[in-house]
């Protein structure tokens, strides 16, 4: 009886481990772009996975550049296949990940480089985040996208202050 229980326990642990490993990356077709940093991917089995882009924050729809960020994301991934590397799950149960397009581009990074997102310094802790921060700084220096609006130069998010003006309207919590 004890051996049977141990065998069953081991099988359950392995099954959950394989499931967790399989969820670390998935591919599918983008069927919805909610906003600049949230998409829905149709995966095999006809399941829809909501994905929050890791390490970045785009303006909301009603905020300055919110619609432009959404359009930027839609132009790059809507109706196309992507691969999502899942790094976390947020409080809403969404996968939080890095989204790679069919041509090998990283959507998260593209949004930063083109000035449609801020780096989420509090949560972007992966090794590549320093490169993403450099891209954000280049976009800021070039006054690309939201950086053309002086009010966007600082955010109170995660205790980070990047400029003199504070725009509390764009401060929000990711997790």
List the helices and strands and how they pair.
Layout: H1 2-22, E1 25-35, E2 38-43, E3 47-53, E4 56-57, H2 66-77, E5 81-89, E6 95-101, H3 107-113, E7 118-119, H4 129-141
Parallel strand pairs: 3-6
Antiparallel strand pairs: 1-2, 1-5, 2-3, 4-7, 5-6
Description:
The chain is an alpha+beta fold and 175 residues long. It contains four helices and seven strands. It has helices at residues 2-22, 66-77, 107-113, 129-141, and strands at 25-35, 38-43, 47-53, 56-57, 81-89, 95-101, 118-119. The protein has a five-stranded mixed β-barrel. A hairpin with a 5-residue loop joins β5 and β6. The radius of gyration is 19 Å and the shape is globular. The model is unreliable at 5-22 and 156-175 (pLDDT under 50).
Comma- or semicolon-separated keywords:
25% strand, disordered C terminus, 7 strands, 4 helices, two-stranded antiparallel sheet, five-stranded mixed barrel, alpha+beta, 175 residues
Portion in beta strands: 25-35%
Q: Which ranges are low-confidence, i.e. pLDDT below 50, for 5 or more consecutive residues?
A: 5-22, 156-175
C-alpha termini separation = 44 Å
Number of DSSP strand runs: 7
User: What class would the helix/strand composition place it in?
Assistant: alpha+beta
Tell me the quaternary state.
single chain
Radius of gyration: 19 Å
What is the makeup of the main sheet?
5 strands, mixed, barrel
Mean pLDDT: 81
Q: With helices defined by DSSP (H or I, 4 residues minimum), what is the helix count?
A: 4
Helix content: 25-40%
Question: Rough shape?
Answer: globular
Order of helices and strands: HEEEEHEEHEH
Strand order of the largest sheet: 1-2-3-6-5
């Amino acid at each position: 009886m004890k051996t049977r229980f141990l065998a069953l326990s081991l099988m359950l642990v392995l099954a959950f481990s394989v499931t967790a490993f399989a969820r670390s990356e998935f591919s599918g077709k983008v069927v919805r772009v909610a906003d600049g940093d949230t998409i829905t991917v149709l995966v095999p089995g006809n399941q829809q996975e909501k994905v929050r882009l890791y390490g970045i924050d785009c303006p909301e729809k009603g905020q300055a550049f919110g619609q432009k960020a959404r359009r930027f994301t839609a132009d790059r991934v809507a109706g196309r296949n992507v691969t999502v590397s899942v790094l976390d799950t947020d409080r809403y149960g969404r996968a939080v990940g890095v989204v790679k397009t069919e041509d090998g581009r990283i959507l998260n990074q593209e949004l930063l480089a083109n000035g449609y997102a801020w780096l989420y310094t509090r949560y972007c802790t992966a090794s590549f985040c320093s490169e993403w921060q450099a891209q954000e700084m280049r976009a800021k220096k070039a006054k690309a996208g939201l950086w053309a609006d002086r009010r966007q130069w600082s955010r109170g998010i995660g205790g980070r202050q990047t400029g003199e003006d504070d725009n509390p309207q764009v401060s929000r919590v990711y997790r």
